[in-house]
């Protein structure tokens, strides 16, 4: 990860989640359940007017692990 990516970690994470939801045609509820996350927390993260609000690093790591495992299972 570069310093530039780190400085935009929340916007990049939001984009990755939205992209995954759209390309895989899944609901936020399914994504949250499969990733072991709170649906409410993820909904607030994606839809908050205040885009400076973020997630805990452990939650971001869970999202990254889920997306990586998902990509690897579809190779």
**N- to C-terminal separation?**
23 Å
Shape: globular
**SS class:** mainly alpha
The H-and-E topology, N to C, reads as HHHHH
Overall strand count: 0
Strand percentage, roughly? under 5%
Number of domains: 1
**Relative helix content:** over 70%
- Rg to the nearest angstrom? 12 Å
Largest sheet: none
What are the segments in which pLDDT stays under 50 over at least 5 consecutive residues? none
The DSSP helix count reads 5
Mean pLDDT: 92
Question: How would you summarize the topology of this molecule?
Answer:
Elements: H1 3-7, H2 9-24, H3 28-35, H4 39-47, H5 57-73
Characterize the structure shown.
This protein is globular. It is mainly α. It has one domain (3-73). It has helices at 3-7, 9-24, 28-35, 39-47, 57-73. It has 5 helices and no strands.
Provide a short characterization of the protein structure.
The protein is mainly α and 75 residues long. The protein has one domain (3-73).
């Amino acid at each position: 990860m570069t310093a530039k990516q780190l400085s935009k970690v929340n916007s990049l994470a939001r984009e990755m989640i939205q992209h995954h939801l759209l390309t895989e045609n899944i609901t936020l509820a399914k994504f949250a359940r499969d990733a072991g996350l709170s649906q409410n927390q993820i909904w607030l993260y994606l839809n908050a007017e205040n885009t400076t609000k973020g997630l805990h690093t452990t939650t971001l790591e869970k999202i990254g692990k889920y997306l990586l495992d998902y990509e690897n299972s579809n190779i």
